Amino acid sequence: MFVVKYKNLFFLLSAILIVGSLWSLWYYGLKLGTDFTGGSILEVTYSFPGVRPTADTVRASLDKLNLGPTSVQLAGDRDIIVRSKTLTEAEHVAVVKALPILTSDAPSMLTEKRFSSIGPTIGQELAKRGILAIILVVILIILFIAFAFRKVSRPVSSWKYGIVAFIALLHDLIIPTGVFSYLGAIRGFEADALFLTGLLTILGLSIHDTIVVFDRIRENLKKHVGIDFAETVGRSLSETFSRSINTSLTIILVLLVIFFYGATATRDFSLLMAIGVLVGTYSSIFIASPLLVVWQKWSSRVK
Amino acid sequence: MFQRRFFAVVLILFGLLLAYFDGYSFLASANPEAWFYRPFKLGLDLRGGSHLIYQADTSTLPATADIGEAMSSLKEVIERRVNAFGVGEPLIQVEQVGVGSAGAHRLIVELPGVTDLQEALKVIDVTPILEFRIERPEGPEKAAITKAYEDARAKYEAGEPISNDPLLAQDPEFVPSELTGRYLKRAQVDFTGQTIGPTISVEFDKTGGDIFAKITKENVEKRIGIYLDGQLLSAPVVREEIKDGKAQISGDFTVEEARTLVRNLNLGALPVPIKLISTETIGATLGQEALDRGVRAGVIGLLLVAVFMILWYRASGVLAVLSLGIYVSLMLAIFKILPVTLTAAGMAGFILSVGMAVDANILIFARLKEEMRHTDNMHDAISHGFTRAWASIRDSNLSSIISALILFWFGTSLVRGFALTLAIGVLISMLTAISITRTFLLAIGVTRTNRLNRFFFGSGIRH
Question: Residues 6 or more apart from A39 whose CB is under 8 A from it?
Fold first, then answer.
């Protein structure tokens, strides 16, 4: 199987992607949404396309309210999005009132599309809980794999499957996060509660793929397929190859549909997931199983 | 053979019935009274509305106070207020974050359809008022008010418009006294009274005790009206002057009613001050847009998956699409029956679960194709294919369920919607893939694995 044969090439590719992701995270950082940082977002829509004040006009009239740093952004052809610190209800009303209404050309009315104001403590809690959730998922999944593969001990013991799955999981977490941080810098993608949700789901899906391959290795070991471990793994990979690709294709297909046609709220989320599924499938075929082979060879040489 | 085919037909009919159930609430001719009329429950982000989080300031409570009780009476009061405001299906929850001194108690209020935040906040933020009122003395004033009420009733019964008499704003039975919940120290349910049922004992503070003594002295054998938020809760009769600032309220309570009353009384005495710390309002148009887009994405996603499956897996693909159709109808029915509150993220979770439901089928078909190479007997190939595929379907889906459960635990309501639909989806898809697809495969009744069947039940570009 070419995957096992050229494994170093694939390791190198992943290493480059991981280094790139870490660099992006270090250089750009992750742009956190108000879900985590606290703060408020107000989105209003003007009744007529094109008839709305410029961002500068809005900024000028908001400056009088002394709200601290605010950001004003035009969206679509009739929306305006205002971001600022956590607002009280009184401040919220003041901001809406301060938004200029143009009456010169055509009557233009504005309606509030959404408003959210999240206290900073809520955000911190959510972030804490999210990170805890990720750690928990990783630990539980590794325990689960070690358990599911407990009867497999030769030539690679079951906990090694768990560790390899863990490395694949890290791989699948780091790369999408890195891509997201880059997208945050160039496209303004924000890491919000759905971002965490996406990461957690990627974990589930990625391990899903890894388990299917491992399961085949487990079965082929029992049937004594292949002359050595490397060949068993290679055979297992080629047997599950089309399934892995097809499954990922269908999932990426539906995710792209959500990206292009779904609700605006889930757009960034679906892109993150699509990247995650792609990377996750890649890692279960090209990283996890070859790693098992490398580990087995290495430990048999040590003996 | 006949049995299997019969069963397969039953399955298809069942799927169609479910689909009818799913779509019924959208039919123009639908009868809302019918027992199977159940509309989907939509989350705030799809129908518009407000989501408010209040922080309760429990530091004002005495150290001995039962915070849980205070919070649940707080919840009850807010519920009453919100209901008075006329919001459909409000959701009010008490939440505890962290434990010990770092812990915080929160009240979460969801108001579907309410986008005028100011109006809603006005209703919620008012502190509840507990009042003790004494009987209105007999005299011309009481007679006048009573007469005004009687006139109004007569007019109402005759169908005439009721005049705007200021006397109608007054209570004919009671007049306010100085005593209010401000002076209440505590209230509790008591079973030691002379009556069989529970009684409620209240204790006033020093000032309250003095006022109470004065009031009871002046009103022996008369009633005292206990009002919460301007509504009469009960009107016990005073037997004698009470000097120790303690009172027994006996009445025709059930234990449950007594508990509720105590909670309300304690609330009047110890209202937990609340502070708004987070608000989220989504306009109705934005919600509608998200809903439309979500539905559209679902339909397109399903169609694309179906086309892919049929092109790649041919006859098996058609069967998989059939079982996928039943899966979707079943999921939608579950959403309606449980009910699962659908959010934008929840819809994404559901659409994603469709992709994953396909996976189980793909696993099975890949196995089937392999088994067909080894045996001439189609029946054996099918049953081996399923048995072999099952271990990996089970193990891989379990890991998804683990993440979904953790997600649910981690979740804000947004994330929970996603986790719930995903978890249900993975579970149901496992069942439909192994039972429904299998039934269909067997019902087709192909017994031999000849070239033709290898083509139809194979996959890929060539064979």
Answer: A83, A84, A85, A86, A117, A118, A120
Nearest chain A residue to B288 by CA distance is: A263
Q: Which amino acid is at B256?
A: E
Does the distance separating the beta carbons of B407 and A197 come in below 8 Å? yes
The answer to whether the beta carbons of residues B426 and B393 sit under 8 Å apart is no
Is the model's pLDDT at B5 over the cut of 80?
yes
Residue pLDDT, tens place only, B192-235: 655 567 777 778 878 788 888 888 888 888 888 877 666 676 77
Query: Closest partner residue to B362 among A43, A113, A243, by Cβ?
Result: A243
Among the four given CATH numbers 3.30.1450.10, 3.30.70.3400, 1.10.10.10, 1.10.3720.10, the one describing domain A39-118: 3.30.70.3400
pLDDT tens sequence across A211-238? 888 888 888 888 887 788 888 888 889 8
Q: Do B400 and A208 touch (CB under 8 A)?
A: yes
Question: So what's the architecture of B2-42+283-456 in CATH?
Answer: Up-down Bundle (1.20)
Does domain A2-34+121-302 bear CATH number 1.10.287.40? no
Percent helix, strand and coil across chain A, each to the nearest 5: 70, 10, 20
Q: In B, which residues are within 8 Å of A200 by CB distance? A: 403, 406-407, 410
Chain B residue numbers touching A144 (CB-CB < 8 A): 398-399, 402
- Lowest mean pLDDT: which of A20-24, B212-216, B322-326? B212-216
Q: What is the pLDDT of residues A127-156, one digit of tens each?
A: 888 888 888 888 888 888 888 887 776 777
Q: Which stretches within B86-220 are classed as H helix?
A: 117-125, 140-158, 206-218
pTM as predicted: 0.73
Question: Residue A257 is encoded by which pair of tokens?
Answer: 């549909």
> Is the domain covering B46-127+274-281 a CATH 3.30.43.10 domain?
no
Strands B41-42 and B341-342: parallel
